[in-house]
C-alpha cells in the first residue's frame, strides 16, 4: 500500500521545499497538506507553482483544511480514518517562530499542536516516521556546550518561543522513548539560500545587517556583552532542507536528534565585520548594556524606529550556548550533506538583501 505523507506547516518555507522532494523520493506516495482555512488560497497558489515546475508530482497532493491546535487536527472522522489506515509519514513543521510571540499563542500552537500531532501519529496503523522540526534553542540560555541528546539541563529561556519549543520537544522525545519512530531536527538560526541568498523574511541577524547597511562609510554597531567571544550560529536554508530531505528516509536517522547547526559559527563580532565588509563599510563597535538597550528600545520614544531592532533580538547577541554537532555532522556525512561555513554564504546573503530591500520580517503563523 502506498505511503501517505502528511505535512503540517504548508505552505510555509520548509513545507513548500520538502513536499516536492518527498514525492520525488517515493514515486507511489501521495501527500496531504494540512492547511489552516486562512492560508488555503496561498496554499493552492503554492501547490500550483510547485506542480507547474515539476509535472511529475502533479495531482499527488491534496489540501485539507485542519487545525493542529484542536484534538484530531480538526479533521473530520472519515478523513482521519483514511489517513491512519495505511502507511503514514508525518512532517510536523507548523510552529510559531516569532521571538516576541505571546504565551497563549505559543503554547496553543507549539505545545498543544505538537501534542495533537503526536496523538494522531500514535493512532496510525503503520507510522513510517514522524519527522519533527524543533530548534537548537531548546537549549534556552544554557551556559556551556549543548549536545544533540541534551534537553533537560536546568536552562532558563529568553522568550515563550524557546520555552514552548522545549516543551514540545519533550512531548516528542517521550513518545520516541515509548517506541514511536521519530527523527527530531534542530536548526539554528536559518538565513537565506547559500547560493542565491533568497529568503522569505528578514529577522535575526538581518536586523544587524540592515542597521549596518543603512549607515555611511563608518557604521556604528551597538553590541552588548563580549561580541568576540559569543557565537552566532546561523545556517543557510538550503542546508536545512537538504539535511531533512536526505535524513528523512535514512534508517540511521530514526530515533535520533539532529542538530542542524554550523560546526564553526562566527562570533557576533566576526558576523558584523563580515556584514560591514560586504557593504563596503568600516565597522565601529559601541559597547552597550543589554538591560539598558532593551529599556531604550521598548520604552524610549524614537529609539525603536531609529535602530529597527526588536529588543527580543538582543538576547541572541549574548547567547551563551555552544552547540556540539559532532554526531550530527557524522550522520550528515553518510548522506552527503555539508553545512557551508558562514564565509561561503555571507556574500549571497548580503547581495540578496541589497537587491531585495522590501522583504519583511514576518513569518507565516
TrEMBL record:
Source species, domain of life: Bacteria
GO process terms (BP): long-chain fatty-acyl-CoA metabolic process
Domain Thioester reductase (TE): 8-244
Transmembrane segments: none
One MF term in the entry's GO annotations: alcohol-forming very long-chain fatty acyl-CoA reductase activity
InterPro entries for the chain: FAR (IPR026055), FAR_NAD-bd (IPR013120), NAD(P)-bd_dom_sf (IPR036291)
PANTHER family linked: FATTY ACYL-COA REDUCTASE CG8306-RELATED, MALE STERILITY PROTEIN 2-RELATED
UniProt name for this protein: Male sterility protein
Amino acid at each position: 500500500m502506498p505511503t501517505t505523507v502528511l505535512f503540517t506547516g504548508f505552505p510555509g518555507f520548509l513545507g513548500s521545499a520538502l513536499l516536492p522532494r518527498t514525492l520525488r523520493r517515493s514515486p507511489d506516495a501521495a501527500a496531504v497538506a494540512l492547511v489552516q482555512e486562512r492560508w488555503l488560497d496561498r496554499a493552492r497558489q503554492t501547490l500550483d507553482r510547485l506542480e507547474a515546475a515539476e509535472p511529475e508530482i502533479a495531482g499527488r497532493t491534496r489540501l485539507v483544511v485542519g487545525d493542529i491546535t484542536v484534538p484530531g487536527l480538526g479533521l473530520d472522522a472519515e478523513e482521519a480514518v483514511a489517513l491512519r489506515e495505511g502507511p503514514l509519514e508525518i512532517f510536523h513543521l507548523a510552529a510559531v517562530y516569532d521571538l516576541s510571540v505571546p504565551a497563549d499563542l505559543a503554547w496553543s500552537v507549539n505545545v498543544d499542536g505538537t501534542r495533537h500531532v503526536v496523538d494522531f501519529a500514535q493512532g496510525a496503523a503503520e507510522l513510517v516516521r514522524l519527522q519533527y522540526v524543533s530548534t537548537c534553542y531548546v537549549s534556552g540560555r544554557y551556559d556551556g556546550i549543548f549536545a544533540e541528546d541534551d534537553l533537560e539541563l536546568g536552562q532558563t529561556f529568553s522568550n515563550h518561543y524557546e520555552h514552548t519549543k522545549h516543551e514540545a520537544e519533550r512531548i516528542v522525545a517521550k513518545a520516541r522513548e515509548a517506541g514511536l519512530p521519530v527523527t527530531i531536527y534542530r536548526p539554528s538560526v536559518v538565513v537565506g539560500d547559500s547560493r542565491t541568498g533568497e529568503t522569505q523574511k528578514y529577522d535575526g541577524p538581518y536586523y544587524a545587517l540592515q542597521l549596518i547597511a543603512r549607515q555611511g562609510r563608518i557604521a556604528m554597531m551597538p553590541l552588548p556583552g563580549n561580541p568576540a567571544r559569543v557565537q552566532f550560529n546561523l545556517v543557510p536554508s538550503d542546508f536545512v532542507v537538504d539535511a531533512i530531505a536526505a535524513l528523512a528516509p535514512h534508517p540511521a536517522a530514526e530515533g535520533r536528534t539532529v542538530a542542524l547547526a554550523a560546526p564553526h559559527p562566527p562570533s557576533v563580532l566576526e558576523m558584523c565585520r563580515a556584514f560591514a565588509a560586504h557593504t563596503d563599510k568600516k565597522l565601529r563597535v559601541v559597547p552597550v548594556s543589554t538591560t539598558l538597550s532593551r529599556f531604550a528600545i521598548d520604552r524610549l520614544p524614537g529609539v525603536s524606529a531609529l535602530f529597527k531592532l526588536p529588543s527580543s533580538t538582543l538576547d541572541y547577541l549574548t547567547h551563551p550556548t555552544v552547540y556540539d554537532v559532532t554526531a550530527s555532522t557524522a550522520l550528515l556525512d553518510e548522506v552527503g550533506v555539508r553545512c557551508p561555513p558562514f564565509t561561503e554564504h555571507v556574500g549571497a546573503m548580503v547581495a540578496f538583501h541589497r537587491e531585495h530591500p522590501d522583504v519583511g520580517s514576518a513569518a507565516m503563523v
